[in-house]
Amino acid sequence: MSMPDAPSSHVRRTRVDAERNRERVLAAARTLFADQGVDVQMADVARAAGVGVGTVYRHFTSREALIEAAAEQRFAEILEYARTDCRHGTTSGTALERYLRHVGEVLSSDRGLSAAVLSAMGSSAPRGDTLARLADAVAELIESDRAAGGLRTDVTVGDVYMMVGGLSGIIRTGSGDWRRFLDLAFQGLLPRA
Q1: What is the C-alpha separation between 139 and 155, in angstroms, rounded?
Q2: Minimal CA–CA distance to 82: which of 175, 177, 164, 179?
Q3: Predicted confidence (pLDDT) per residue in 12-53, tens digit
Q4: What CATH number labels 7-61?
């Protein structure tokens, strides 16, 4: 007598498929928002992901929820960069500079997503737990650079967020060269002689 498939293996397979679809939807959304900004609709995302609109809505109950998930994913990637690439393999005292240049590259490469996030959420800044985790990571970079003699002693996480706000505004509006902005800003972060 043959035993039917165990329900747990079917449930597990369904969960894997659902998670795969969620990731496809999120990847498609990020690409579309980066390219097209606020004009992207749920049906556009479904087409690009190769799924039905119902699948998109099963994972993200609204366009705003999808945009928020895309923003959270981007913040998680920035956080991972801060915790790994900025901490290891960098010249002593340059971790914060590396972090801010990376943030500039990310924001510049997907201005459309930033515009969609700002439109949907009213702010392009991280929130809640993500904000706290990023603040902790930035504080570690500050301490590392300060200990190496690469930063003024009074630099704070708030100062870095102010710089990110300026960087974001310059990139979003195209009002200048964001790399030059960072070059000038870094001069203000150096220890005073």
Answers
A1: 10
A2: 164
A3: 666 788 889 999 999 999 999 999 988 999 999 999 999 999
A4: 1.10.10.60
Give the amino acid at 10.
H
Q: Where do the structural domains in the chain lie, given as residue ranges?
A: 7-61, 68-193
Decide which of 2.40.37.10, 3.40.50.2000, 3.40.50.920, 1.10.357.10 is the CATH code for 68-193.
1.10.357.10
Angstrom distances, CA of residue 180 to CA of 46, 82, 136, 164, 186: 39, 21, 27, 14, 10
Give Cα separations from 183 to 64, 138, 143, 151, 165 (angstroms). Answer: 35, 19, 20, 14, 15
DSSP SS3 for 88: coil
With vertex at residue 75, the alpha carbon angle to CA 86 and CA 69, rounded to the nearest 5 degrees, is: 160
Instruction: Give Cβ neighbours of residue 36 (< 8 Å, ≥ 6 apart).
Output: 44, 112
Which parts of the chain sit beneath pLDDT 50? none
Q: Which residues contact 159 (CB under 8 A, 6 or more apart)?
A: 189
CA distance 100 to 109: 14
Tokens 């998670």 sit on residue? 19
pTM: 0.85
